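To whoever is on call:

I kicked off a structure prediction for a single chain this morning and the downstream step that reads the tokens threw a length-mismatch warning. I double-checked the sequence; it's 73 residues and nothing unusual in it as far as I can see. Pasting both halves so you can look.
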Amino acid sequence: MVHSQKLTNLQLELIKLFSYKIAENQVLEIKQLLSNYFADKATEEMDRLWEENNWTEETMKEWSNEHLRTPYK
């Protein structure tokens, strides 16, 4: 059975770029732009959560000392 999955709006936009021949250094620049964009979005979301939850430096220290591993028998 073949499962058909639609492309996302981002995938469709990127496919439009495939019709252009560009230099390898430009491909790397585009990859870096995309990486930076998504890293910025992740940072924005973490900043929002940090403020919304009133997290502090102490919260991070507490988390780093938590042991959440599943105990094995």
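Update from on-call: the warning came from a stale cache, not from the record. Cleared it. Sanity check on the structure: The radius of gyration is 21 Å.
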